[in-house]
From TrEMBL:
It comes from the Bacteria. One of its GO terms (biological process) is modified amino acid biosynthetic process. Belongs to the glutamate--cysteine ligase type 2 family. YbdK subfamily. The keyword Iron does not apply. PANTHER family: GLUTAMATE--CYSTEINE LIGASE 2-RELATED. This is Putative glutamate--cysteine ligase 2. Coiled coil: none annotated. It catalyses: L-cysteine + L-glutamate + ATP = gamma-L-glutamyl-L-cysteine + ADP + phosphate + H(+). InterPro entries: GCL_type2/YbdK_subfam (IPR050141), GCS2 (IPR006336), Gln_synth/guanido_kin_cat_dom (IPR014746), YbdK (IPR011793). One of its GO terms (molecular function) is ATP binding. Keywords: ATP-binding, Ligase, Nucleotide-binding. Its EC number is 6.3.2.2. Pfam families: GCS2.
Length: 363
């Protein structure tokens, strides 16, 4: 069975006002003092963000428990220095982001200007194990049309800088301002993939291979495919859903490749439209069908995803968990829907943030 690891980026906020706080250095110092060998928590581009990474797991129940443990530990370390953590993909309240003191981050800020300064966004990255570089590239080619569905399910960024953006997953719209971000053409082989990245580096526009910010890519550090389209999810169970779906998509894609099934040859232009629609609508309207690139009700497209990966879900033991979580999401809405309902109920974005702090820890 393929293993899965999850990276989550969390927002650091004032527990009373909900305003983002540039406290990541202090939180990391506290975590390291508590455990000098800790490698779970890391700094991010902005001081108002904190990242953690789980270990790889084969069982979704174990993965979910570690995500919750990491969230609670992040909350504990933050709480002991006077701030809190929120699984919010953008800040609902206005903020002036503080670039972390780091040579790479300073270079990004100088090189990309306002594009970099607007990247205070929190994502959820899923790493799924693969057996070879060749398999990784074959999988990435076959994941492309399904990734917008993961974006819609995880959508958790309707508000940004004090405004309703009109999107469910506005994080992805900000992220795609990087010149190297978004969907990709078919690579067709490992040579094709590495040639594409080398050509991008040769332009001088991006700094290094780590800046190949594709929606899905072979990891440069681990024997995994990294799926990068999801917002950080308000609830840990949604993050586990994205991980389970990601693993089943990778397994299904690998089987199709081994069986000689070619990937769907959709253009990047259409894939960008599918991504935009998913970010805009979430689960509330229609999505573009991954097979036809024509609009269908979101719930029907989600069902098509589950049908497409049904065998892998069953064999991984994830089918019941996935069906249950998907039903909950389609019933109550994703994180974006929850945030908008909270604003409707309270009339205050501050109250939205403070309630999301509570929900981040499963309370």
């Amino acid at each position: 069975m393929r293993t899965v690891g999850v990276e989550e980026e969390l927002l650091l906020v004032d527990p009373r006002s909900g305003e983002p706080q540039a406290m990541s250095a202090a939180v990391l110092a506290h975590a390291t003092e508590d455990d000098p060998g800790q490698e779970v928590f890391e700094k991010e581009l902005f001081g108002q963000m904190l990242e953690f990474a789980t270990r790889p797991h084969a069982e979704m129940e174990v993965l979910g428990a570690e995500i919750m443990h990491c969230r609670k530990e992040a909350a504990r370390h933050a709480g002991e220095i006077g701030c809190a953590v929120a699984a919010l993909a953008t800040s609902p309240l206005p903020v002036s982001p503080t670039i972390t003191v780091n040579e790479r981050y300073q270079w990004l800020a100088e090189r990309y200007g306002i594009t970099a300064r607007e990247q205070m966004v929190c994502g959820c990255h899923v790493h799924v194990s693969v057996h070879s570089d060749e398999e990784a590239v074959a999988v990435v080619d076959r994941l492309r049309p399904w990734l917008p569905v993961l974006c819609a399910l995880s959508a958790n960024s309707p508000f940004c800088q004090g405004r309703d953006t009109g999107y469910a997953a506005y994080r992805s719209r900000l992220w795609n301002r990087w010149p190297s971000a978004g969907p990709t053409e078919l690579f067709e082989s490992t040579e094709g993939y590495h040639r594409r990245v080398a050509d991008m580096l040769a332009t001088g526009v991006i700094l290094d291979e780590a800046m190949a910010y594709f929606d899905a890519r072979p990891s440069a550090r681990y024997p995994t495919v990294e799926i990068r389209v999801a917002d950080v999810c308000l609830h840990a169970e949604t993050a586990v859903l994205v991980a389970a779906l990601g693993r089943a998509l990778v397994e299904t894609a690998a089987r199709d490749w081994r069986a000689g099934e070619p990937p769907l040859d959709h253009s990047v232009s259409l894939l960008r439209l599918a991504s935009w629609q998913a970010a805009h609508a979430g689960l509330d309207e229609y999505l573009l069908d991954p097979a036809t690139m024509r609009p269908r009700p979101a719930a029907d497209v989600v069902r098509s995803l589950l049908d497409h990966i049904g065998d892998a879900l069953a064999e991984n033991g994830d089918a019941a968990r996935v069906e249950h979580t998907v039903a909950r999401l389609l019933g109550r809405g994703n994180g974006a829907c929850e945030q908008r309902l909270l604003l409707e109920r309270t009339g205050s974005l501050r109250d939205v943030v403070t309630e999301c702090v509570r929900r981040t820890q499963g309370e």
